[in-house]
Each structure stands twice: as structure tokens, then as C-alpha cells.
Amino acid sequence: MSDTTAATAEQFAGLRVLDLRAGGEAERLAELQGRWRGLCERSFGLDGDADAAAKAIIAHVRTEGDEAIIELTERFESRRLTAADFEVPMGKARAALEALDAPTRAALEAAAERVRRFHAVQAQALVSTGQIAPPESAAGDERATEYLASRVAPLQRVAVYAPGGTAAYPSSVLHAAIPAKVVGVAEVVLLTPRPSPVVLAAAALAGVDRVFQIGGAQAIAAVAFGTATLPRVDKIVGPGNAYVTAAKRLVFGRCDIDSIAGPSEILVVADASADPALVAADLISQAEHDVQASPVLLCSDPSLPARVDAALHQQLADLPRRAIAIAALRDQGAAVIVDDRAALAREADAYAPEHLELLVDSPAELAAQIHRAGAIFVGPWTPEAAGDYTAGPSHVLPTAGGARFSSPVGCWDFVRYTSVLELGPKALRAQADAITTLARAEGLEGHARAVEQRLRTDPVNVQAKVGGAA
């Protein structure tokens, strides 16, 4: 153990405890409740420095294109590229797959197959719908028919961002690219600086069409606006650092994005039945991602935090990324104690975690009472790690409380819906009074006249006028 790591380990004295049970001293309880609300209201991606830097990078890429990418890549990554170097031939990705050791390849293939199978089922729900709605008394009269539909079609081109170098996550390539290909996206572009062989192999397995070895805010800007070398995309998905996140937010509107992604987080909900060793292991599984990760325990057993602390100390001792995990546990970790099972459900919803684990009696019953989570892992045999790799649903999930209003990446992210409306003359006439009245109530006379112009030229209407005059 290095001196730095040893010092970090010595600074971890256990999870901070927030005891929210009723009956405590009122002022102290109010303070703890305020601290818990602060954890629930966490935010990410509002970094002023990152926003300013990303804004400048985007402007540079918009005006200078490929030359800006060359300059910025050298400045931030100490890599000198030419525009011809940006794209990695897909033959290299296929070669990386062939060169993988057998166990790693088998694991990637198993994960890819399960992700593909899950999303193939999910995609079946994304169907075009249509309604032909003639009045019952006018069945068969084409003039009375109205056709109302919602038509679904895949996006044409999507970019998947995946961190490169030492932070190589081939699983993220599978979990973002495969749903896009399942629904028929014509071209999936992977952005990843310094792509490792295993990331290239994952790209080949996922059906990625093109790989570009650029990253950072400059990569986001390049595909949002397009350059001579990089194509403009319809949507960007995948997590990145604060600068990537800021850039995604700033280009939204030029293209779509999945979400404003923050550091990884887990809320382990536990009661007296929970095994503290499992609780500790699952907290560590997220804490080792990033010093900014949020590993939180929510429990109804006041004795559990101390037992989890003991298990944490034991399991951290030989963890390769222990310094990172300890920093996350120390700085963002917490053990929150509540009165009962109802409070577990209520406070889990308040936190709205990316990953929610239920290590309780009757976990499926509790899962049905919780409505705000990116993914729910039910029972002791469902570790969050299974969701990260092989379970099937995409592991690209809302963070920082985003589960209150957004969803995991899925097939729905890679399609668009178009409303289709067709009215016959009688169908329009039946709605005309309501349309013109509402248009004039809003001060939009042109809208009303657009309807009335059609009614004046309706052959039936014209014929009626002629007949009446005769």
C-alpha cells in the first residue's frame, strides 16, 4: 500500500450516520433531516468553469472544424492527430475482437446477446398506431372518414460516447449501441479517445458502424454540428466527465441527448434481514467508480450501519481501487436510519437513485411501492453488478435525482414519432365550429379562415348553394 493510499484509508472512519427516526431531540432531528434533503437534492453538471470551457470549445469547433479538433486534442490529451487519423477503420475493431482472449470474448458475447435479446422484446412496444374514425352513421362514406396515426421511425444517425484510456468501459458501448441497432438506426458512431482493444472489440460486437478516436467537449461539438470528417448526428448518448456533460447540455437543440449524466450512485435499502457483507460489497461496487460517486445506505435497523462499517473495512483492505472507493464513501457516503418499512419506500422515492437495491424481507412487495429509480435490483441475488454487465436492460441510467422525471436509455431513445392526420370534408365540417371558435378566442383569425376557405370550396357545399338558388 502506498503512503497516499494508507493515509486515505486511515481517514475513513465509517459512514456518516443520519438517524431520522422519530423521538430524537427536535433540533438535532431537524438538522439531520436537512442534511438528508441536501443529499436528495444533489445536482451535477452545473459547473460554471466546465460550462465556460465547453462553450469556448464548441465555438472553436464550429468555426474551425477539424483543425480545432486537432488543436484541442493536442492541448488536452497530448496527442497529435491529423484529420485522417480521426476515424479508426472498422477492420481494426473486428481484428481486436478476434485477438481477444477467449474468456473476455465469451463474456462480451454473452453480455451482448442478453442486451440484444432484452431490447428486441422492448422494441415490440414501439409500434405505429392508427385510428380510422368515421361517424357510425357514415360508415363507408370516404368524405366522412378521418385517419389519425402515430408513426414511429428510427433516428438516422446516433453517436455513442465512451470514455477511453484507463477508464475503458466496453460494457457501456454494448448498453448504448445495441438498443440503437435493434430499432434500426442506420449509423451508430462511437466517440472514444485512445480506444482500448476491448472497447474496439465491443464496438464490433454491438454493430457500431464507425469509430472516431476523439473525446472531450470537442467530440461532442463535432458530431452536434458536423465537420469535414465527422458526421452530424441526431442524438448523442453516453456518459462523460464534467466537460463532456456541459457540452452535451449546450448542444441540445442542435441534436438530442440522453441526459445530463453525473457520477454513479447507489441506494441500498436494507432491513434487519440484510447481510452486512452484501450491503458493503454493493456500496463498494459503486464507490470504486469515481471519488464523486454516491454510495448510500437507507435502513430501518439501527444496528446495521456499524456492522456494514466493519464489513467495509474488511473488504476495502485489498481492493485495487480502494483509494477511490474510500474517498467516495467518506465524502458522499451515508447511512440513513428511518423508523419503518413505509419510511424506506418514502425516502427511497425522495432520493430517486440511479441504482436502487432492495436487501429486505419481501423485496418485490417493497419494489412495487417505489416509483422513482433508474433501475431496481430486487433481492440478495440481484447485485447491481449484474445490471452493469449481463442482465439485459441498458445500464445507462438517470443520475443526480433524474429518475424523478427521466428513464433509462432504451429503444425509445432511438426512434421518433410523427403524427399523421387525414380528414375528409365531412370530418372537417364536423369540427369546424370548434376550430374556428378556438382560433378566434386565441386571436388567430388566419387559422379560422384556413378552415372556412375549405368549407367554401367543398363540392357538396357548392352544389347545395346552386340547388338552393335554383
Describe the structure.
The protein is an alpha/beta fold. The protein has three domains: 16-41 and 263-404, Rossmann fold (3-Layer(aba) Sandwich), CATH 3.40.50.1980; 49-259 and 412-416, Rossmann fold (3-Layer(aba) Sandwich); 424-461, no CATH class. Helix content is 48%, strand content 15%. The strands form three sheets. The chain has a six-stranded parallel sheet, with helices on both faces. Strand 13 (355-359), helix 15 (363-367) and strand 14 form a beta-alpha-beta unit. It is globular, with a radius of gyration of 28 Å.
Task: Set out the fold topology.
Blueprint: H1 3-11, E1 17-19, H2 26-40, H3 48-64, H4 66-77, E2 87-88, H5 90-99, H6 102-123, E3 129-132, E4 146-154, E5 157-161, H7 170-182, E6 187-191, H8 197-206, E7 210-212, H9 216-225, E8 235-237, H10 242-251, E9 256-257, E10 265-270, H11 276-287, E11 294-299, H12 304-316, H13 322-331, E12 334-337, H14 341-351, E13 355-359, H15 363-367, E14 375-378, H16 384-389, E15 415-423, H17 425-441, H18 445-456, H19 459-469
Parallel strand pairs: 1-12, 5-6, 5-8, 6-7, 8-9, 10-11, 10-13, 11-12, 13-14
Antiparallel strand pairs: 2-7, 3-4, 4-15
